[in-house]
Amino acid sequence: MKGVVLHGGLGTRLRPLTHTGPKQLLRIAGKPVSQWVLEDLREAGVRDVAIILGNLAPERVVEYYGDGSWLGLRAR
Fold first, then answer.
1. What pTM, to 2 d.p., does this model score?
2. Helix, strand, coil share (%) of the chain residues, nearest 5
3. How many helices (H) and strands (E) does the chain have?
4. CA 15 to chain centre
5. Most buried among 22, 54, 68, 71, using CB within 10 Å?
6. Checking DSSP bridges between strand 31-32 and strand 2-7, what pairing results, if any?
7. What is the residue extent of each domain of the chain?
8. Poorest-confidence range of 20-24, 31-35, 59-63?
């Protein structure tokens, strides 16, 4: 099974927290919000994940998740 995670938007309602990066990388309980989603997908049996990036610091998302192998996923 394949999953899609939307990782976009400007996060204007979360400013000033989102002036420097995507809202999905904000940490909640020690992890970025999107990591919680990816771990839930993994637990549901999803192994291939497409992360759709927005235009607010997409390089930070790629830097953080890489190929997803450290989460037991194949991220693209």
1. 0.85
2. 35, 25, 40
3. 2, 5
4. 18
5. 22
6. unpaired
7. 2-75
8. 20-24
